[in-house]
Amino acid sequence: MRYLPHTDQDISDMLKVVGAADLDDLFSSLPADCRRNDDMLLPAPLTEWELDAHMDALAGKMAVAPEYKLFLGAGSYDHHIPATSRYLLSRSEFYTAYTPYQPEISQGTLQAIYEYQTLTAHLLGMQVSNASMYDGASALAEALLMGIRIKRKKKTVAVSQAIHPLYRRVVETYFRPTEFKVVALPYDAGGVTDLTGLEDIDGLAAVAIQSPNFFGCIENIKAAADRSHAADALLITGFSEPIAYGLLKNPGSQGADIACGEGQSLGIPRSFGGPGLGIFTTTKKYVRNMPGRLIGQTTDLNGRRGYVLTLATREQHIRREKATSNICSNQGLCATAAGMFMATVGGTGLRQLAQVNHDKAEYLKNELTRAGFKIPFATPTFNEFVVEFPDGFAATHQHLLKQKIVAGLPLAPYFPELPNAYLLCATETASKEDMDRLVKEVTA
Amino acid sequence: MKETIGTSGLIFNEPLLWEQGQKGRCALSIAPGDVAASPLDDSLVGEPPAFPDLSEIEVVRHYTRLSQWNFGVDSGMYPLGSCTMKYNPKTNERQASLPGFASAHPLLPQELSQGALQMTYELEQLLKEVTGMDAISLQPSAGAQGELAGMLIFHAYHKSKGERRTKIIIPDTAHGTNPASAALCGYKPVPVKSNEQGVLSAETVAAVMDEDTAGIMVTNPNTLGLFEDHIREIAAIVHDKGGLVYADGANMNAVMGIVSMGDIGVDVLHLNLHKTFSTPHGGGGPGSGPVCVKAHLAPFLPVPRVIKTNDGYALDEDHPESIGKLHAFYGNFGITLRAYSYILSMGPYLKKVSQLAVLNANYIKEQLKGTLHLPYDRPCMHECVFSDKIQQEYKVSTLDMAKRLMDYGFHPPTIYFPLVVPGAFMVEPTETETRETLDGFIDSVKAIAAEAREQPERLHAAPEHAKVNRLDETEAARNPCLAGCPTDRTKEYIKG
Known about the structure:
The complex is a heterodimer.
Chain A (H helix, E strand, L loop, with lengths): L7 H11 L29 H12 L9 E2 L12 H7 L2 H4 L11 H18 L3 E2 L6 H15 L5 E5 L4 H11 L5 E5 L18 E7 L10 H10 L3 E6 L18 E5 L15 E5 L11 E6 L5 E6 L5 H4 L12 H39 L13 E5 L4 H10 L2 E2 L2 E2 L10 E5 L6 H12 L1
Parallel strand pairs in A: 1-12, 3-4, 3-5, 5-6, 6-7
Antiparallel strand pairs in A: 2-8, 7-8, 9-10, 11-14, 13-14
Helix pairs in contact in A: 3-10, 5-10, 6-7, 10-12
Chain B lengths: L55 H12 L22 H7 L2 H4 L11 H18 L3 E3 L5 H18 L6 E5 L5 H8 L3 E5 L9 H7 L4 E7 L11 H10 L3 E6 L18 E4 L19 E3 L11 E5 L2 E5 L16 H14 L2 H20 L15 E3 L11 H10 L6 E2 L9 E3 L7 H20 L1 H5 L12 H6 L9 H8 L1
Parallel strand pairs in B: 2-3, 2-4, 4-5, 5-6
Antiparallel strand pairs in B: 1-7, 6-7, 8-9, 10-12, 11-12
Helix pairs in contact in B: 2-9, 4-9, 5-6, 7-8, 10-12
């Protein structure tokens, strides 16, 4: 087997050094009743070409572009990944390294993540970003727990119903064994969070909204921040589409205390939902309450600039059960990819890219409106929006799959009160031709 | 003279991203598009992000140079104890980058995502066979989230029995994440000590196990590289008081085909696919930490579960006792795909993986004991733990030796962990290293031990050839500088 370099001679020489009769003998100190007596029933090893054929066949059973036209976002977006990003990320010095515990021979990872932290913080208008969380959902759960740590005696958090429903389910999982309470904030007729009654919630530690929210609608972060702060609670702003902040006012400038979300849009393949990137940012004031790894700048013995993992006293390996989180491995390579993406598009480019996304989605929205479909929420959106199709559209949606068109995500499973609503997305990769075809097909 | 690896050579200096570039450059060609511009209302629009503008060549050289400052498994031996830094097969990368997988949307209708669902289902079956456990979820994103899943399952299990237990037993040889994971579920860790053989004795557990204790978290083989001999007896004690046994499977690389975790009393186990199953560590992640359970705990696994139906594969949400979701979608699918590719490439050779991993570790242990102090002199599993007790006489520490190893072309082992060994120097060679590489490592450690006696100051000043020398970590923590200032506009702001 090509990953096992030992020859028979190597093995017998090494066994002699170790003082074992054979390979089995290496385990002779294990109690007999702990030894496995049967062989593992595993399929015979595949050659590399057999494996390729098997994997090609499995991959062939998936519906992907360009064969399929997908107007599907909902937390996973079709953005172009530059060839340079793919190429640079495949440098094995990056992907075969471990967590940079030995900074002298890990400066590549350390500087790349420091740059990621910097660019991410600036994208969101926050002062500090960590080195990443698992995904947007666990980042939100950890942000809410952080809010409770900061506000000490307060034990309730309020979470907008316009936050991605699958993120909310992860929050429920993290909160279930705790004594803390999660209160739902409804969305209003405009598709944005209804903050009335916030002041009446007892012991409110943090409020979480998402912008653009799950319906694609742009929330008023400033108003949410003011009301949260008036209730002596933190405002957490989530997101699943960071490209929006190439255009929108960033959460930091609007008063958010924590901005966290999913960074898959920043040069990371969708990969059936993971690995993505949990982005987590806050202000300097709260840095010591932050979960996850942080990389900081310092100097070496000769005064040269360098980077190290820092503020580790917050973390599990030092503080153990009193740590700010149990996270250890994070999504380092995805953070590196996001840094590469942000460097590639630059400030000027990200503004343009965000504008193109908005243009495409507005075109599709307008064409659907012209074709007579209802847009239930009037609030401005970024690159996805909700459409209300007529009764019986489910059959059309199903029929279109056969024509290799995915006409958005049906919202009924997540929002039973919106039985005919579909969430549609158009990014820079959606062509006018494909959008026109979609409109034609749904109208037919 | 025999050529050794050593280090020297071509190292560029490279400024930060925002110390280069010019306003207006872009490394991605963005056309205005084939539809009319549609401006957003001014009240919603902010300033463009304060990013540098770079050309394509600048971006490419930047990251190429950065990569050259990094040591990876592809650069050389990476004997980081507890981390299983084995070779990361290139075919796995090929499989994960197939457009059918890499471009797949997670909320595709199930009939359009059969390939991904089939892979997930089959990987679960393969991992069941390797571990002897009955049901598996691939959803946890890393080892620590697998631990959290395990603790949530403990919590849900006791709750289903109408109980609320408050404590959890954690030995001093367990992984550092264990107490933090337990605390997230409101469990108070009860620390217990390993005995003079470096393992946990049954009496120690019996003395603290009670009906207020949810169970035990045990790393097996433990972080001393030793198999917990009394695991069955310990499991019986815990079960007898209504508790559950959680095994941290981070060290599974030692026992594939040797021990069936499902048959020695373990109720819940997590795996680290980025350790045992060859997926790359990416400079910190992404990993993948599947959670495996015995049949009686299957109802509590995260949802959705993947099931096989008459027409293929489907996602099943109908598990009312489930702990819920841990990831927005299905976890780090791209990583689980690599592990699947590895297992299909290896088949029954996985047993040989464990045998050779243990052979390599014992070989190093035998060759270096005497050169370095070996606190537990008994057969080890996949890793061995030395200390700097001998070198302390020359005022040379584990840290000094670790840094000096870099000059010899090796990544240092894990140092100062586990905490039960002061000055720990924890070596896990893995099975993918050749005998010649192991000999090179052994010779280097011996040469460094000689240097410790003869020129200790050289070790204090190590490394000599790295991009930077030892860094001031105290200063980094005292005055944290966690983000730079790409433009003047942001300077004041970022200082706060």
